[in-house]
Amino acid sequence: MNIKKDEFAIALLFPLAVGVVSGYLTRDAQTMFSVMNKPSLSPPGWLFPVVWTILYVLMGIASYIIYQQGKDREDVKTALSFYIVQLAFNFFWTIIFFNYESYLFAFIWLIVLWNLVLITIIKFNKISRVASYLMIPYLIWVTFAGYLNLGIYMLNP
Prior knowledge:
The protein has 157 residues and is mostly helical. Helices cover 80% and strands 0% of the residues. Helix 1 (5-25) runs antiparallel to helix 3 (47-67) and helix 3 (47-67) runs antiparallel to helix 6 (129-155).
């Protein structure tokens, strides 16, 4: 595959920008997370930005691979549409959870996000197995986030 540097940079920067803006809008999240009651498998707060950065990079690479398969193809357009929608859901989950502290609604939102990520993986897999594999760590992390979200909802009435 011939890498087009501008398109690759955009594909990487798009999800990273979503993460940066989301992080900025929820900049008090680290403090808030440190004082709330959490389920037993909760990682330290510093781990979240590290993991999310890696996941956003993997998502960006996956989207680039899909885009390069033919931006005019209907299946590519559909796959990338799901990718963008799930990324929007990802963005708003952070705000719902941290800014509004609406843990139950955030959990329901996360269930929708999980399904959107799964659909994106399925759509990507029909175009590129490699791209779909790059999205699997994200699905696993969203699953873990669901555990944390539900646990926090139950432990912080």
